[in-house]
Amino acid sequence: MLSGERTQAFLTPNGERRAVCDLCRDKVKQAGWPRADDSAVPEPPPEPERQPRRRRDRGRSRRERSSRADSSEPPERRIRRALERFNQSEHRETVAGLTRSLGEPKVAAVTPAQAPEQVRLTVAWELSWYQWKVEFSGGDADVSSFRSGNEVGELGPADRAWNARASDDGRLQLGLGSNGDREAPAPDEPA
């Protein structure tokens, strides 16, 4: 763990107590690990409600319809919505802690060509980088940890299109910070 990263205690399937960083929290929750401070075992997620389909929508899933609607949204607007959602999430605190320890990061917010319903957020320092993805489905946007690494050179060109900045409190916003030299294509170009 890097200095400044927050952790929470979770229980493994064997009952062992483990410290889990913010980036790994989604993975352990999906694996069914309960938080150590929760006295009850988590309940399985409820089954999604089934709504009747209109005749013209037969054969298309709700996700396909919402994905098409979200991908038709202009990239900059989708990126701004993704940044707003990230700033409301607990992941903002990870960026704030690392910024206190490592200084001002470079930030890229892009819509990958292969996943137009997503926005990928990259926050990079000299010693490490982190990525989150914001997936739009229906009216909601889910923020989850995606990848992390040690060297900025591990990132593709689109993920080094520094087009955003981070404030001291971890909030991300479009626009370049003091270290925001552009190294790659604009965010709406293919990743």
Walk me through this protein's architecture.
This protein has 191 residues and is α+β, with helices and mostly antiparallel strands. The protein has two domains: 1-39, no CATH class; 73-174, no CATH class. Helix content is 23%, strand content 25%. The protein contains four helices and eight strands. The chain has helices at 22-30, 62-71, 75-87, 91-102; strands at residues 7-11, 17-21, 106-110, 118-124, 129-137, 140-149, 164-166, 172-174. The strands form three sheets. The chain has a four-stranded antiparallel β-sheet with strand order 3-4-5-6. The protein has a two-stranded antiparallel ribbon with strand order 1-2. A two-stranded antiparallel ribbon has the order 7-8. A hairpin with a 5-residue loop joins strand 1 (7-11) and strand 2 (17-21). It is globular. The two termini are 29 Å apart. Residues 39-45, 65-71 and 184-191 have low confidence and may be disordered.
Supply the number of helical segments: 4
* Portion in beta strands: 15-25%
Q: What is Rg?
A: 18 Å
**Percent helix range:** 10-25%
What is the terminal-to-terminal distance?
A: 29 Å
- Mean pLDDT across residues: 78
3D shape: globular
- Give me the side-by-side strand order of the main sheet: 3-4-5-6
**Which spans have pLDDT < 50 for at least 5 consecutive residues?**
39-45, 65-71, 184-191
Report the major sheet.
4 strands, antiparallel
Number of domain units? 2
Helix/strand/pairing class, anyone? alpha+beta
Topology pattern, helix = H, strand = E: EEHHHHEEEEEE
Count of DSSP strands: 8
Task: Jot down its keywords.
2 domains, 4-stranded antiparallel sheet, 25% strand
